[in-house]
Write a structure and sequence with these properties.
This protein is mainly α and about 525 residues long. The chain has one domain (about 45-475): Amino acid/polyamine transporter I, CATH 1.20.1740.10. Helices cover about 70% and strands about 0% of the residues. Helix 6 (about 105-135) packs antiparallel against helix 17, helix 6 packs across helix 20 and helix 7 packs across helix 14.
Length: about 525
């Protein structure tokens, strides 16, 4: 006696995509772990800790480590909101299609415009920081010209790997994941267990960084250390159409990226603080680049070289992931006809990657790197603008999701927070506003252009985007769906019910209706 066929509860990937108005154009060759590796190497705790370790200690002292926990908790809430959205909309591009389907075309244009520039600038910043490790690995003096050449080399190598296809992207992302875990957790644990020179109580010792004023100002000033660490998890959703069962897997990959990244960063940051032989010198700013000194003192020359190989691998993987995420966003933007050169940018190569969008994601960071070569002071401003731009784009999605909830939206993807979604969405938005205020606070150097560079940069991007939006009206050139969160949720529930009913009654799913446009 044969058992009755089990009803199929979920739509297939192609059925889900069809309900959203698209057809499969990519190979779904990215596994859950490869997707997690992509997000993790983009978030890259190794890159974040090594890039801003000295800055955080000189501004906020050892207690700046607590920003890793504060920001990690806040971004985990954001990832829960994103998880519901991507579970309903598992389509390429992340921020742009989410904002479009939750609000509208013009709103999505601005969110994507800010996000594109923030990602491109982030690619430049990570490549610049990575060039220093590459120079140390080969024993080359890191002159400005050498730094430029090595930065360009990182960009080009990442581009060539991305050109080869999703499988190679996934392979290198997994290698980068291993390098990250060795570089942050492995080395961090070794320093904590075998090389500790400071007491654990040092994390509650301000070491007088505040001078005669309040420590609150110094502590808030060190927030950049944590804020720079916890973005990149959204990249898991940028490649949704190349992942198997993305509506269920990507929300998990996002949360795992935050949790593993946060633990890794704590081990790494804490290990370097506790193993620092001259912590006072780092906090005072006398030691501008302390990590190589700590590594030499604790690992020896050979150990330092091995670690540098691991670090360079992690930086390359981070640049690779950033380029991949940026190119998918550009492709998604272009596929809907919302950007200049959209026909060229929306082309997919024989290896099933958006090759032309990848070229843009490499060439513009290369141009910015040349500007940094002309003026090295631009690097810190570039980094700060990248972080603020990312957070602005994130919170535009969080706000759009909350707006839809007030209108009656009940997320219809496999992942849903149900009744808790409202509260989580509100707290995530409040956290994001708090983070943006911290990032936008002007500096205190006395130079107008330096102190206000981040807000000036964001203002230029916003004004340029608004001018193009209202002059060229790209929103009128696209007929792709927008503002349909409630309608799509109802459609998905209806199709899911039809599939389950058809499977239970006939043993096979019934044909799906044509895609909506």
């Amino acid at each position: 006696m044969s058992a009755d066929p089990q009803p199929r509860q979920e739509l297939s990937d192609s059925e889900h995509l069809s309900a959203l108005g698209y057809e499969d154009s990519f190979n779904r060759s990215m596994s859950f772990w490869a997707n997690f590796a992509l997000g993790f190497t983009y978030l890259s705790p190794l890159v974040g800790v090594y890039s801003l370790f000295a800055t955080a200690l000189s501004v906020g002292g050892p207690p700046s480590i607590w920003w890793i926990i504060i920001v990690g908790c806040g971004q985990l809430l954001v990832s829960l909101v994103f998880g519901e959205v991507v579970s309903q909309y598992p389509i390429h591009g992340g921020i742009y299609p989410w904002a479009r389907r939750l609000w509208g075309r013009r709103y999505a244009w601005m969110a994507a415009w800010v996000y594109i520039w923030a990602m491109i600038v982030t690619i430049t910043a990570v490549s610049e920081y990575g060039s220093g490790f590459l120079a140390s690995l080969f024993g080359i003096d890191a002159t400005p010209t050498v730094g430029l050449l090595l930065t360009l080399a990182l960009l080009v190598v990442a581009l060539l790997i991305n050109f080869s296809g999703t499988k190679w992207l996934a392979r290198v992302a997994r290698i980068g994941l291993g390098a990250e875990l060795i570089g942050v957790i492995g080395v961090g644990l070794y320093l904590l267990i075998f090389q500790r020179k400071q007491p654990f109580s040092v994390f509650f010792d301000t070491m007088n960084v505040q001078g005669s004023g309040s420590y609150a100002a110094a502590f808030f000033g060190a927030a950049l250390a944590g804020l720079f660490l916890f973005y990149g998890f959204e990249a898991c959703g940028d490649v949704a159409e190349e992942v198997e069962n993305p509506a269920r897997r990507i929300p998990v990959a996002m949360r795992l990226t935050i949790l593993v990244g946060g633990v890794s960063a704590l081990f790494s940051f804490g290990g370097y603080v506790l193993a620092a032989p001259n912590l006072e010198g780092i906090v005072s700013g006398k030691i501008a680049d302390p990590i190589p000194q700590i590594l030499t003192a604790t690992l020896g020359t050979v150990g330092e070289k091995i670690f540098l190989v691991v670090a360079v691998t992690a930086f390359l993987s981070c640049v690779l992931s950033l380029q991949a995420a940026a190119s998918r966003l550009l492709f998604s933007f272009a596929r809907d006809g919302m950007i200049p050169g959209h026909r060229w940018l929306s082309k997919v190569s024989r290896s099933k990657v958006p090759a032309n969008a990848l070229i843009v994601a490499c060439s513009i960071p290369a141009i910015i790197a040349i500007l940094v070569w002309l003026d090295a002071n631009l690097l810190n401003q570039v980094t700060a603008f990248a972080v603020l731009g990312i957070y602005v784009a994130f919170q535009m999605v969080v706000l759009a999701a909350l707006r839809q909830r007030f209108k009656g939206w009940r997320p219809a993807g496999p992942f849903s927070m149900r009744r808790a979604g409202f509260a989580v969405n509100i707290v995530a938005l409040a956290y994001g506003i708090f983070a943006m205020v911290l990032l936008a606070l002007p500096g205190s150097t006395g130079s107008f252009w330096v102190d206000w560079a981040v807000l000036i940069g964001l203002g230029v991007v916003l004004i340029a985007g608004l001018l193009y939006l209202f002059i060229a009206r790209p929103d009128r050139k696209s007929d792709a769906p927008a503002g349909d969160a409630i309608a799509v949720a109802e459609r998905l529930r209806s199709r899911r019910a039809a599939v389950a009913e058809g499977t239970s009654s006939t043993g096979a799913a019934q044909p799906e209706p044509d895609a909506v446009g």
